[in-house]
Amino acid sequence: NSILRACFEGRVPIYSPGVVDSAFGTALFTFREVLRTRGKNLVLDVLKDMKELSEIVHVSKELGGLILGGGISKHHLIWWSQFKGGLKYAIYITTAIEWDGSLSGARTREAISWGKVHPKAKHVTVYGDATVLFPLFLAFLYAKIGRRSRSVKV
Fold first, then answer.
1. 3-class DSSP state of 147
2. What is the CB neighbour count within 10 angstroms for residue 148?
């Protein structure tokens, strides 16, 4: 029971453009080196991921984003969205604050100024720990609308 499993079962793609910029990236590198000693390989194609993400944006009728945290993942979603008129729906859940000028702490109004979020979008920035708030958010959605199957294949 995890986000990854639910996405796999629902055929929902997950993009992590900064996957190697962390301790997880070091673990992936080490794993790949072990595989190579066995004549196998692990290939991560971040440019292919960018292409797929941009294609999803360009073929979508409307865009919405639920952004947990910030940084590089937030940047990639809102960056591509500006080329399609911006997100029409945006929820930011973050612990980052605005005063330091970082993208992680930037509110939706900053993204509106760039065209990354549409000026008439329904949007909110929620301050808190995503590991606490996201499960509560999902519980509310399931209680309100129930679990639905996807009608669109990704």
1. coil
2. 8
Report CA Rg, the chain. 17
Which two three-digit tokens encode residue 41? 């390989």
Number of structural domains the chain divides into? 1
pLDDT digits (tens, 9 = 90+) for 62-103: 999 999 988 888 888 899 999 999 999 999 999 988 887 787
Residue range 105-115: mean pLDDT, rounded:
91
Candidates 51, 116, 144, 153; catalytic one: 116
> Looking at the domain assignment, is residue 153 inside a domain?
no
| CA–CA distances in Å: residue 109 to residues 20, 25, 90 | 30, 32, 11
Structure tokens at 40: 């196998």
* Any domain includes 150: no
The tokens of 12 are what? 């929902």
Contact between 6 and 148 (Cβ < 8 Å): no
116 is catalytic: yes
How far apart CA 130 and CA 69 sit, in angstroms, is 7
Which domain does 24 fall in, by range? 3-145
Tell me the two tokens of residue 128: 């808190």
Is residue 95 assigned to a domain? yes
Tokens for 146? 């129930």
